[in-house]
Amino acid sequence: MKFDKSEALYQEAQNHIVGGVNSPSRAYKGVGGGSPVFMKKAQGAYFWDVDGNKYIDYLGAYGPIITGHAHPHITEAITKAAQNGVLYGTPTALENKFAKMLKEAIPSMDKVRFVNSGTEAVMTTIRVARAYTNRTKIIKFAGCYHGHSDLVLVAAGSGPATLGTPDSAGVPASIAQDVITVPFNEVEPFKEALEKWGNEIAAVLVEPIVGNFGIVEPKEGFLEEVKRLTHEAGSLLIFDEVITAFRFTYGSAQKLLNIEPDMTALGKIIGGGLPIGAYGGRADIMEQVAPLGPAYQAGTMAGNPASMSAGIACLEVLQDESIYEKMDQLGAKLEAGILERAKKHQVDITINRLKGALTIYFTNEKVVNYEQAEATDGEQFATFFKLMLKQGINLAPSKYEAWFLTLSHTEEDIIQTLDAVDYAFSNMTKK
Ligand code: PMP
């Protein structure tokens, strides 16, 4: 495979765009550098790059593309929206229709608001929770990613129940003082944090099923205990379902896990590939938001007809629950096949999978928290990533990301992928 045109475009990109990319994870920093592949066209489960190479895609644009690329029903909806004008700045009936669909699928949301990204959605849930509780601090869990707003770019302190330090330059230490980070899947440190700061905590923010240090499910009873203690402290529970909503079932992780938060942040899949975010929750909490209440949030592009149309069309496709079963079956085949080949070539891996989403960790340990995900072998992953890419399999360039199946992937694709895995593992040094 040749990548000459991608390499030339990356050179050029670096003259104009900071780092050559518009989101840092697109550069191959997580896999030892090199030029990222520049894609030209996507259709179904496939990508074609500027050099003419074809790939089976498991990136799914980091989650939104659950139908596969250029799904005809979504493409038609976007085309129609474009013909009618993409942006009005006035209310439209499409917003009502889509809000109703979301509320029916996620019943913990009495009211919703559309925004333009997951970052905005999470950022605003925190503001609303602060307005509602009249408190300032939040608790979050190590390794969960909640977008790039100041407050959630704060890492864990040195111990479990310590205040945070900024994770990014430009985030003031004064802001980090309002964030406490504790390990996912452990009740004790969370309890400790609440004992120390309980009456100052506005909200507890969590990915109910983690997607950002690989796919990690909550241990039995963990979220129930988090919810109970959060409410006991007079704080609100926010689920960040930007990745999980409509990923595993028609609805959210709340439905799968049978546990409801006070507020939910959404994004990715609900836009059918166009920019979107949304947040919602109990009516008395949501009524804090302007123009009804004192918590301000606005957006020129919010609820735009193009994103609404794409989102509605995407959900219409997903309403057929059998697609989730199909993705589960393909996921199971992929998982079993990868494990078999790892055994054959004596490569140590662990797979976390939930239905059509999975993560391969290069370790022989179980992974249930961020510390364990961090300790997995990044060099092995980087080698694997590059060997897969050269065989036409496009994965996310980071050991922390998931493989996402879509309704467009076929058994043939899985067989081809497993052949590539076999070759990759056979070329990896044993550790
Ligand atoms: N929350 C979660 C759980 C996410 O995975 C992401 C993005 N990866 C975000 C929030 C931020 O969403 P966006 O990139 O649309 O701002």
Automatic annotation (TrEMBL):
Keywords: Cytoplasm, Isomerase, Porphyrin biosynthesis, Pyridoxal phosphate. GO terms for molecular function: glutamate-1-semialdehyde 2,1-aminomutase activity; pyridoxal phosphate binding; transaminase activity. Its EC number is 5.4.3.8. InterPro entries: 4pyrrol_synth_GluAld_NH2Trfase, Aminotrans_3, PyrdxlP-dep_Trfase, PyrdxlP-dep_Trfase_major, PyrdxlP-dep_Trfase_small. The modification N6-(pyridoxal phosphate)lysine is found at K268. GO terms for biological process: protoporphyrinogen IX biosynthetic process. Its cofactor is pyridoxal 5'-phosphate. It is found in: Cytoplasm. SUPFAM superfamilies: PLP-dependent transferases. It is an enzyme of class 5 (isomerase). HAMAP family: HemL_aminotrans_3. Homodimer. This is Glutamate-1-semialdehyde 2,1-aminomutase. It comes from Salirhabdus euzebyi. The gene is hemL.
